[in-house]
Amino acid sequence: MTIMHHPTVETLIDLVTGRLDLGRSIVVAAHVEICPTCAHQSRLMNTVGGSLLAAATPEQMSPGAAERAFARIDAHPGEAAEPPPKDPPSDLPFLPKTALQHAMGDWQWIGPGIHRRMFELPDDSGARVFLLKAQPGTRMPDHTHTGSELTLVLSGAFGHEHGRFGSGDFEEADSDVEHQPTVEAGEDCICLVAMEGSLKLKGLTGRLLQPFIRI
pTM, whole model, 2 decimals? Predict the structure, then answer.
């Protein structure tokens, strides 16, 4: 696997420092799990962050700070540890372990040649997460986004105006990005996606199709 597209440095920093919501962190962490380059960068970021913290000048705690902190912990006892990741479904042998920690629903038809499989996450998880499977030759309508979209290619490949994205590649898109992905011939393209908002189809054809595109 030759990975050509990676998360931005800012996105990796947000993952390492815990600033990503659960939905987006699942997709970014799944990429880091299978990408040696980003895994190395993440380890370096953790090392640098730890060094900066160790070198920081200690601050005097206010009176009673420790007692208040322990009281808040007691008021919100931790949840039971998550069970170990399950084996991947037989049709998804390449699914990263990070994603296997979360339950998924069944495949649902959402358009010609396109199916979606939602992850079952808490309501406060931020971006919704799903697997998107498209048949070879499927051409999405030209579109942009009303929010952010993070995409990790798990199998197959697609291409558009901004390049080719194959297995392991990562794409970040938002309202400033307009593209029209087309799935390559040969095999289904399956992607792990975290999306805020929805697709915004462009042109007359897009406006006609918008009510029928349930992504």
Answer: 0.80
